[in-house]
Every structure is written in C-alpha cells, then in structure tokens.
Structures
1.
Amino acid sequence: MSILHDDDYILAPDRRPLSALYSRNARAVIERGFRVIKSQNWVVLVSGFFEPVFYLLSMGIGLGRLVGSVQGPSGAPISYAAYIAPALLAVSAMNGAIYDSTWNIFFKMHFGKLYQSMLYTSLGPFDIAVGEIFMALFRGFLYALGFTGVMAVMGLIATPWALLLVPAAVTVAFGFASFGMAITSYMKTFQQMDVITFVMLPMFLFSATFYPLSVYPEPVQWVVEALPLWHGVELMREISTGAFSVLTLVHLLYYLVMILVGLAFTTRRLRALFLR
Amino acid sequence: MVTSVRAAQPVITARNLVKAYGDVNAVDGISFDVPAGESFGLLGPNGAGKSTTMRMIGGVSQRTSGQLDIMGLDPELQGPEVRAHLGVVPQQDNLDEELRVRDNLIIYGRYFGLSRSYLAQRADELLEFAQLEDKAKARVDSLSGGMKRRLTIARSLINDPKILLLDEPTTGLDPQARHVLWDRLFRLKERGVTLVLTTHYMDEAEQLCDRLIVVDKGQIMAEGSPAELIRKHSSREVLEVRFGTDRNAAAADQLDGTGDRIEVLPDRVLVYSENGEESLEVIRARGLRPMTSLVRRASLEDVFLRLTGRSLID
Amino acid sequence: MTEDSAQRLEVQAPEVSAAKARRWGSFYFMEHMLRSMRAYAVTIIVTSVGNPLLYLFSMGVGLASIVDRSPTAHFAGVGYLAFAAPALLVSSSVMTCANEMMFPVMDGFKWRRIYYGPHVTPLVPGQLAAGHVMAVGVRLLVQCSVFFLIMLAFGAAVSPTSWLIIPIGVLAGMAFGTPLMAYAARIEKENFQFSMIQRFIVMPLFLFSGTFYPLETMPRAMQWIGWISPLWHGNQLGRLATIGLTEPLWLVAVHVVYLAALGVIGMIWARRNYARRMNA
Ligand SMILES: Nc1ncnc2c1ncn2[C@@H]1O[C@H](COP(=O)(O)OP(=O)(O)OP(=O)(O)O)[C@@H](O)[C@H]1O
Ligand SMILES: [Mg+2]
C-alpha cells in the first residue's frame, strides 16, 4: 500500500505475439471451472453421461432385436448395438462440445455477464477461449471414459484398440469446440442461436449413426461424407473394431485440419465475440 | 478537496473518441485528459454515453475511431497489460453467480495472476471492507442488491489498482455504505490512485470529483471543477416559488428582472439570482403572493439540468 | 406526457373491465403469450416443418431400409415408415410442450416476470395458467397439423381416420405438459431441474415408449416405462388412427382416459400452484 508516483503510471508495452488478446493465464479460467464443478451438484455433471447410454440401450437393445446384425467396418457382421455404440460416442462428443462452445458461451455472455467481469481483469479473450475449450474437453473426456466403460460392460468391445475411443472422442470434441465459439460470435439473439440446432440435428440424423451410408443415393452420400460428424462416426467405428485403413488417417487428418482452422477462425473472431 | 501532490501528467488521454452502434453514435467525439491522482467525473443523462466511454477505457469495447492512451498504452492493443492496473466497478454487477462470495474475490484475483497466498489474505481484508465477513461462504444470489454492490466494489480493489473506474458505484447502497465508500475512495486518492467515476447523484459528484465533464448525446457539454461549473452556468442562489399549477406561467410573465434568469416548470418557477431573499422581496413588492417559496444555494444539479435540459424526450 | 389534450379518451368503467376479465381473462393472456411467441415465429415455423421432414427421412426412410429387410420385423402389417411416423408426431408434440412448460414458466415467475404484469390487472393467477396452456395448445395444434400434412406427403398416413392424429398429438402433449407446468410453477430457483427433467424424463420417455419399435420388443423389465408414459399411450392411439392398429377396446379407453386425466389433473394442480405462488 505505498503511495503512487508519476513513474508508477508509465507502463511498458508487452511485445509478445497476441498480447492484445492473451495474458498467458488461461489456467485461472480453468481453475474457476473446477471450482464451479466442485461447488455444484455432482448429479449435474454426471447427468451429461446418460444421454448416449439411453440411446444405446433403446436403439441397441430394442431396435437391435429387430434388425439383427449388420455389416461392420471390416466387412464382418457385428451386432447392431456394437454398430451404433461408437457412432453414439462420436455424436455425444459433438453435442457436448457444441453445447459448451455455443449455448454455454452465449448464456454466460449475455445473461451471466461472466465474461464481462473476466475481461475487466488482465485476462484477454484468448485466455477465456482456451480455458473454456479446455473445460469442455475435460467434460467430454469424462463422458467418453464413462461411455466406453458402458460399452465394455455390455460386451460391445472386442479389441484393446477400443481404449483409443477416449482420446478419439476428445479429438472429435476439439474439432467442434474450436469452431463453436467462432460461430457464436455471429449470434446476437436467441433466435439466431436456434440456427445451430437446425444445422446439428440433420447432421446427427444423416451421418450414418443408425444405418449405413449406402442406403442413400450417391450424391447424398457425397454430401454426408463431407460433413465432420460422418468422419467422427467412421473413425470411432474403425477404432472400436480395430479395423484400420487409409481412411482412418483421412478421418484423423480431417479433424486435425478442422481443429487448426477452427482455432484460427475463433482467434480472429475473439474481438467480435468478447469486445463488443 | 484533496489536491494532487505532484505535477499532473495525464494517465488517461482521450482524443475524439467515437463509438457507433449501428448508425447511432453512442459516444460522439469525446476528448479529455485525466492527470495522475485526479478524481475525474462523468455526468450526463441516461444514454449519454458514460458507460460506453468507461468500457472503452477498460479496453473491453472496441472504439469506432479516435485515440485512447492509458498510462502510455492503447487499451485495445494492450488490453491485458492495461487492465492489470485497473480496477473496475461496472454499472451492473457481474458477480460470478456460480461461485460463493469469498471464491468470487479469490478467483477474480486469479484472473490477474495473483498468488493464492496473497489472495487468501486480501480476500479477507476486502470482505471486512465490504462488511460481508459473515457472508463469506454464502451463495452470491442470496445477497441483497446492496451487498452485491459492495462485493463488486471490493472485488475491484483486489489487484490494488492504479486507476479505478467506477460506473455509478453507489447506486443501490444505503447511506451508511455510501459514506463508507466515500471515505475509502478519499483514502485511495490520498495514496495517488486515479479515480474515474460516473454518478447520477450530484452531491456525490460535488463530494468526490476534482473535475468533471457533463456529457449529453455522446458529446461534452461542459468541463471543469464542480465549483467552476456552478459559477459559470448558474447564479449563486436559486429561489423556488409556487403559484399553483395553472397560474405559474402567468405569474412568471410578471417576474422579469427579479433575477438573472427565470425558468418556468410545470409545478414551480425558478428564479436564479445572487441573492434569493432579495429577489423574493422584489416579487412580493410587485404584489405577487406565491403559495410557497424556498431559497437555496445553486447546486450542480441546477447546472446539470440547465446543460442537458429537463425534458426526457430528446 | 401531456395531460390536457383537448379530447379526453374515456376509459370504460372499472366494473366493466372486471366483469370482462372474469369471463375472458384467460383469452387475454393467451393473446399476450401468442404475441410474445411471435418473436420466435421463424424458429417455430422452421422446426414445425423441418423436424418432420428430417425425422421422417432419416428414421422412416433411412432406418426403414435396414429394418424392413429384416425377417423378424413386422409392424402391424405396414412398413416401418408408417409405423414410426405417428409416434414421431406424438413425440415431437410432447417434447415441444415440455419445453414450453419449463423455461417459459420460470421466465414468467422469475426472470422476465411476465406473469406479474397481468397480476396487478383484474386477471387472476388461474387465468394466467389457463392462458399459457391455451397458447401452447395453439402452437401444438399448428405443429401437429403441419406434421400430419407432411406425413400425408410421405404416404405415411393411409387410414381415413388419420387426421385424428392431430388432436391425439395435442392431447398427449398436454398430458405431459400440464403436470410439468404445475411443477415448474413451484420452483423458486433453477438449479438445473429442467435439464435433469430433460435428460432423465423426457429423453428416456422418447426412447423407451415404443416410438421406434413395439413396446413388447423391449425386455419385460423395462416395459413398465411405456405403461406410465403418456408418450406410449399417445403413440398407440396415433397408430390406431393412422395405420389401424388393432387393440382391445378397453385398452383404447385406458389410453384416452389416462391422457385426459393427466391433462386435467395437471391443469388443476397448475392453477393451484399459480395462485399459491402469486398470492403468497
Ligand atoms: N451494446 C449496445 N448495443 C447497442 N446500443 C448500445 C449498446 N450499449 C449502449 N448502447 C447505446 O449507447 C448509448 C449510450 O449508452 P451508455 O450505456 O453509454 O449510456 P450511459 O450514459 O451510461 O447511461 P446511463 O446513465 O443510463 O447508464 C445509449 O443510447 C444506448 O442505447
Ligand atoms: Mg451507464
């Protein structure tokens, strides 16, 4: 508590790259995230894990009885439950990441005013983005771990490769989360946020989650093959059966590019998103 | 008023600041300097652009044009660097509703990269300052409006800021809390902290501000110390007389020359003059019988209303 | 704020306002709610048209292509599309109604406090609850009608009584929605109750109420979910109407009575909770 003098009022500029947006303190945002998790009801955290499990039970067991077995990625027939389980994991990774990077951000921005208060500190938008993406991926990681466990218990896992489902799910989540914030930066009202749902729902329904792509006419197949979720679904399926091919690399590469482009895009949009 | 102890060098320099929302200029070419250690006020009616200006100073709102220099840096290019030295009390409390009261202070401090051991001690000091010690573990949404305000103010001091931006800091506070805050701000000022504040309480502005600007529709209408502004834009005293709602206008026609300036309001007539009692004598001498009369010193409020108009519809 | 305009507008006598409000109050508030839904008009229209298209294509056509070729699958003698379509309509109505009865109700009491404006007029809380329900009913009616038209276009409604799916959809929505509304009216603080309801009640009901396959396909231990689920009762009624599913008469009666009872009890309970909360 010393007396301030004139030279205390002269600041030296920070010349490191991104210094306008980044103060290298994302860990403070992460720390907050964990403190919230700790003080919040654990049921809330755990509940996110159930949705794909319910889908797996309903479709895998119920519908599975009617459908019987289907052709797996290696060509060998597998049970319907084993067919949809990895796809559901990809879908849930996508949904969680999208929710956390769009609606969650939007709410905290416009209603909780959380980011306003963070931005009045020495944090920059980039710190917040990194911290929030990390938290989203952390939740995604927990759910993926839980879901893979459920698959094991249901006897849907036949290869040790399936352990890779967890990091793969986090990768899929990262791909979507890196784009989500950039998209949210264009949204000003609730109504506009609904656009996200209009895009995600068809992607979920058409990305070969519940039935093979071959049921569609060829042009439709091309469209679906261009969508990120399809790559996620296929990647997970290949991992779950250990049936790798060149395509596995293609899927991975797709996500790598998606993450890099998404992060660059989000970084560019940080000002529009946070500094209105 | 406490005067700065040293040669004043501006720590905030604003030149032709403009912020446009759509095609409306919320801030429309504002320029001012704030020397180190000064307590600087922004007054103005609702929607004048005060909060917007404050947000640009904090670097959390991108300006449309103009220059801004905070302690030698542009807050838009060096946001984190500048804000590390800023304490901000926004107009609307934005406490972290998901965290408890004490955690609000600690986590906020972590955003400045402050150490946990420093924060543990600092948080307790600030809880005491805000008189919220017994609420340390409470949820934020269980606090009353005034308590939240006090917590927000306490939070702004967590990093021992050099410049404190206070946007209507005392709105919602009871008189005790208001006086505690004034006292605290005086002490910060004595330490050389620069204060920038907005308020709708004119007594507060007179109490706290060394110098202020009156803003209307995004532009500066007047600038000076409270005393200067009163001297320049008002007489020394104001006489308020009432003749009854339907007779005020008629009576006012007969008041010419009783003061420097006459203002007719729906419910009363204001006579601005150097000596109110004398003016009242003159009025009585003209055979007018006001229902009530009141002589008071001219205040910043008179200046404010004079400069920004009384009507809400503009 | 000019007081003395030459012509004063004469307001109707307070007694008249009170009498009118007693009679038509619910409708006045329904109008209020419908007007505020206009902000979401685009969303409502796009979802009303988009959802049926998406679900009928992906489930009814896509999924059907692997279900229908299976020898074990047969659905009351019709294709999978016709089997799933009425249940998808009922599900969409129930989910919409659930959404309209959670956050908007909380919004009315707590966030934007839209109920408290009318509350200081001659309207009474019960009328606010009724008005809200009626407005949602209008939305469901529109949504179910659009869904039905799209079903026709897909050739998924063959029976001449198919149109009955529209009132059935609204009824099922309300049977689930009004008790939920009553519950939402009691919540003082939103602590994720709504997400929990979404995740642990709405979602499981959608998945385990014989929407995608007959209830009997599920293990016996899980079939009780269908029996208590308004969705299953709605689904069965819907299939009765659109594909002529045959069921004993008593079971049909059970479906109707169960749904109606839920709706009525929910409404009564909701009115009580509204009055309790607002007059507290
Ligand atoms: N995010 C925004 N988008 C659009 N317009 C805005 C936004 N923020 C402020 N404005 C507009 O800018 C103008 C100035 O607002 P500002 O909040 O700076 O006023 P103020 O002087 O702080 O008023 P008050 O005394 O009411 O707090 C207003 O006309 C307001 O409507
Ligand atoms: Mg303001």
Note: Residues 1-7 of chain B have pLDDT under 50 and may be disordered.
2.
Amino acid sequence: MNLLIVLIKIFLMIAFLMTMAVLLTWVERKQSAVMQDRIGANRADIFGLRLLGLFHPLADAVKLLTKEDFVPPSGERFLHGLAPWIAFTTALAAFAVIPFGPPIHLFGREIPLQVADPPIGILFVFVITGISIYGVVLAGWASGNRYGLLGALRGAAQTISYEVSMGLSIIGLLMVFGSLSPASISEAQGGLLFGFLPRWGVLVQPLAFLVFFTAAVAETKRIPFDLPEGESEIVGFFVEYSGMKFGMMWLGEFVEIVVMAALIAVLFFGGWQVPYLTPAGFAFPGGMMIALPRGLILGMQIAAFLGKVVFFCWLQMLVRWTLPRFRYDQLMRLGWKGLLPLSLLNILITGLVLLIGGT
Amino acid sequence: MKEGGTPQKTLTFLERFYLAEVLKGLWITGAHFFRNLLVHTGRALGVVKKRRGAVTIQYPEERRPIPPGYRARHRLLRREDGSPKCVACMMCPTICPARCIHIRAAESPDPTIEKYPVEFNIVLDRCVMCGLCVEACPVDAIRMDTGVVEMSAYDREEFVTGRDFLMESTPADERAEAEE
Ligand code: SF4
Ligand code: SF4
C-alpha cells in the first residue's frame, strides 16, 4: 500500500515536471517575444488551429524523435548515450523532496505531499545537483569534440563554484529554521514575524535569498551564466547531440528551472504556505478570523505552491531574456569574490542575531 | 589607456555592484512584458483597437507597403504600338556593376529608330538592385517600379528574365489602381 502511494506520487511528480517543462519551452518563446515587442512562434497548427503557438512543443517532439541520432566517430558511444540520461534524471530526482502541500489525511493514514521526506532533504538536493555535473562533463568528453569539452569544463568549473555559495547561503536559513527537511522548513514558515509579517525565508534571510537565487540561475546554466553553452561561440557541451538525446538535455534544462523555482519557493517563500492561512482558516494579525473548510484550505495551499513555482519560473525567464552573458573572469569573480564572502557574512550575522536574540 | 581609443566610462560603485543595474534592466523588460501582455489581451477581447502589442508584421499575410521609388524587379516600357521602347543603346549593360544585362540588338523595322533589342535578359540573381540601369537609360525604357520584391526560383535558369517577360510586367501603382 505504501509502495503504491509512493508510486502514484512519483507518477504525479514526473507528470507535473514534464508538463511544466514542455509548457516552459512554449513560455520561453512567447515570453521572450512579448518582452521584445514581438509575437513569437505561432505557425505550428493543427487543421488551421494555432492556439497561440501551443502546438510548437508538439512539433518539437515530433522533430526530435524523427531526427537522426548521431554519435560522432571520435566519441565514446556508451558514455555519449549515458550523459543525457544523467542530466535528465538528476534534474527530475531533485524534485523528490519538494513538498507540494501539507500532509493530507486520507483513509486514516497521513500522506505527506512529497515523494520522499528524508531528514536531510536539502542535502539530497545538493547531492543530486552535484551529480548532475557528470551529465555535463560526460556529454562534453564523450563527444570527442574540443568545443564540447570546453563547454563541459566551463560547466564543471561554474557549477562547482556556484554550488559552494549556494550551499553556504542556505546555512543561515537552516540555522533559523533548525531543520534540513524541506517539509519542516515549509511548516516553520507558517509562523509570523513581529506578529504581522509572514515568517518567510526571504524576510528572515534576504541576503541569503539574493545569493541563492543568483547561484540557482547559475546552476541552471542559462543566460547570464550560459558560458558552458555559449551558443554564439562554442555551442556548448551538447554540441554533438542530436535527436531525442539533445531533446533530453534540453528538457532537462527546463526541468531544472522548475526544480530551482520550487526550491526557492520552499526555502524562501513559504512553500505551500499562504500568508495568515492557518489550518483552521485565515487568521489576520488584527485578530480577525475567517474559518474555512479543510479541503478549500488544502486547495489554496497547493495552488499557492504552484503559483510560486510558476512565478519563479517566470522570473528566471525574465532574467534570462534581460541580461547579457558574463565574461569568464566576471563569472569567477562574482562566484568567489562576491557570493562566497556574502554567504559567509550571512552565516556570521545570522549566528550573531541568533546568539543575541536567543530564538 | 590605449592611444586613440575612446576613454572608458568609469563605473560608479552602484553600477559596479551590478544588482541595482540588474533590477533596472528587469524593470524595463518586465514593463514591456506586462504592457504588451495587456495590449494583447485587450486586442483579443476587442477593447484595445489602436495600439499594437508587437511590432511584428506577419509576413506572407501582412506586407509592409512598398514606398514609391523603391527599386523592385525591372520592367521594360513599350511604345504606343507595343514595340519595345528600348533602342538597344547599350547604356545599361555598360553601367551595370553586376554585368547582368545581356542585350542582342537588331536593326529596327521603323526607319526613324536605329536599333531595337531582339533579346533583353536581366539575370536577376546577379543583379544588385542598384538602379543604375534606370538612371542610365536615355529614353526611359527601363524602370524598377513593379513592386515585386519576392524573386525566388528553384534553379538558376529561372532567374534569367527575357524581354517579353520584362515588357509584360506592370508597375505596382497601376496594379493597385486596377485592384481598387
Ligand atoms: S539594377 Fe543595377 S545591377 Fe541590376 S540590372 Fe540594373 S544596373 Fe544592373
Ligand atoms: S539604356 Fe535604355 S535604351 Fe539603352 S539599352 Fe538599356 S534599356 Fe535600352
């Protein structure tokens, strides 16, 4: 029975992630177009029906599936095939510890709305994103292409540099909430700060949020941190990929965006928490109470979580279509001389405040 | 500083810090996003009529108007009796920088005219649309006012336009009038 529940949850999670990723390919085209006063891809149609270009992902899928799957003769066949799987599955797996909503009670058992809730959930995410570097490095190396290798090296250097700041930036947060499990971090953000502000991570740890967000964008290897890809100069670590293998790399990137958005939502924006919504209904700071039925509250909380994820996907797209790419030295300077000291400073300040404040 | 180079603008601390600049940039693009989204929705609902959410011209369906004087595909003019106005003086092939006009002249049956073109080929895939042929013509026999800007073909031979084809082309404004 437990296994069945977990399987259902895994299925739902993958379905959610894939839908989001596919939709994001459409959003990326359309959002960039709207931002740049264009119309964007709208030509794919079924019987003359265009639906704002929503069929383009479908057309992409058909194209990618029917394309030749080419392995360069100088490449390593096995590793070349393995790399997209690593990139893709690690992106999916990281989502396993993200709680969609509060635990629900169904047929007398408590079902947490997340695939797995290990006590070290956050570490799990970092471990998985750490492994995902292998996808990049293997892809670059197994292609037997110098440009691919260059991209892979850049990718590895960048991911490692930013993973440090990313990990350190949330330590302050972990100190405040006293837990490594995303579920209890979400839970803890339901409280109030000074009696009227929601106790969200971003209000408790604004500096950490900035560092984390920057590092998260760098982790997804998109503009302004797209040096591993560097479309205009080296094409990147997946230069020798075609067909569905490229498709997996590409979709993996979008899944990663969703995962990062979810992670930011869970860590800094209360996860599934709606401000002032308690398990009994709304409780505003003035003492006003609005009681609500259980199901509605649950629905609102899940919707809040999804809304936050969608918002942060949107924000990442906005950043991607606004900023120019960093130069390599700027990238390294920002990582090691900017974000790293800032995250260390954040730990120091948090520690001092906790020591003095006692909470 | 390198000699002769333009002096670099030194960045202020805030600009170096980059965050404020990032936010400024995001503000601009975000404002574009929301404004255009609003206009798009307004147009879809029929509320907004005048403003457009995008500068896109959806090409095969929508076209940019071709301004007068635009150098489009050539045409050869005729006399009243339908014979070519061109007197095969070879001015245009001489001036053509792309050397893409090929004329074979013959004696004109009309005693007042010396020569006329038996063949008049313009190789369009070589033509650079400079309009010098039009300028050079002493008798105003060639013009580039057809308004045809789409010149495409599946092989090179199709780009060689013959005399009769050029004579049959009509100017764009005439066609527009005929449509009205
Ligand atoms: S437009 Fe210029 S290039 Fe073309 S035929 Fe005339 S002179 Fe030659
Ligand atoms: S310049 Fe005019 S008249 Fe002379 S050959 Fe060309 S088109 Fe004919």
Note: The pocket of iron/sulfur cluster (ligand 2) is lined by residues B 86-92, 103, 136-137, 139, 141-142 (CB under 6 Å).
